[in-house]
Amino acid sequence: MKFFLDTANLEEIKVAAAYGFMDGVTTNPSLMAREGLGDQVKQIEAICKVVTGPVSAEVLATDIEGMISEGRALGKIAENVVVKLPLTMQGLAATKVLAEERYKVNATLVFSALQALLAAKAGAAFVSPFVGRLDEIGVDGMGVVEDIVTIYGNYGYETEVIVASVRHPQHVLQAALIGADICTIPFKVVQQLSGHPLTDKGLAAFLADHGKVAKPASGRKKN
Asked: If both were cysteines, with which of 22, 43, 141, 147 could 16 make a disulfide (CB 3.0 to 4.6 Å apart)?
């Protein structure tokens, strides 16, 4: 399973890259706005200098021609840029055109398995079901992911499933058990993945025991 970092914050990306398990980055207009970034192109260029894996950048247009035009511009920033398009009929039409032109597309704002099926048929390289937002309205987000994985397996679609809108480590665990290709994870959740109270307790005990042994040895008098 691949881990993407869901952020537009360059410092978070640099820290996560140092951990050694970050495979890519996803951004969107909301994440850009949260960082006070008005120039998306400049920020994507900066991110691509740190990240060698896929970097998703989202279009702002909602019409077919506008999405195609913006998608082409974003896709030319760097070879690893993936164009994010919303799962609308216009987005599907734009996906088909850009995919045929060999731009990689990430179909975003996906909330059903049928939407994901349409994205795969249109040629999307990635599809992003938003599990957290589904959970918030009483729908089993991970159940939708499982349906998507099953459908893609049934028909041999190569579209990769990115589990998005991740709220906690349990989402990551469930995604891995289901067999999703990727999780895109907020920085705060990334920091929670390695934590366990028994690890902290065990480490504290090891250090305490080491201290008990080391103190007498260091206090011996020389002959």
From this structure: 22
Contact, 38 vs 8, CB < 8 A?
no
- pLDDT over 90 at 194, yes or no: no
220: its two tokens: 């011996």
What is the pairing mode between strands 160-163 and 126-129?
A: parallel
List pLDDT tens digits, range 111-164: 999 999 999 999 999 999 999 999 999 999 999 999 999 999 999 999 999 999
The residues carrying an active-site annotation are: 84
pLDDT above 70: residue 68: yes
Entry pTM: 0.90
- 100 CB contacts (<8 Å, ≥6 apart)? 123
Q: Does residue 8 surpass a pLDDT of 90?
A: yes
Q: Residue 173: name the closest of 112, 134, 131, 209 by CA.
A: 131
Exposed/middle/buried for 93, CB within 10 Å: 0-12, 13-18, 19+? middle
Average pLDDT of span 57-71 = 97
DSSP string covering 79-114:
TTEEEEEESSHHHHHHHHHHHHTT--EEEEEE-SHH
Q: What is the set of domains in the chain, with CATH numbers?
A: 2-195 (3.20.20.70)
Cβ atoms of 163 and 184 within 8 Å: the answer is yes
β-bridge pairing 126-129 and 24-26: unpaired
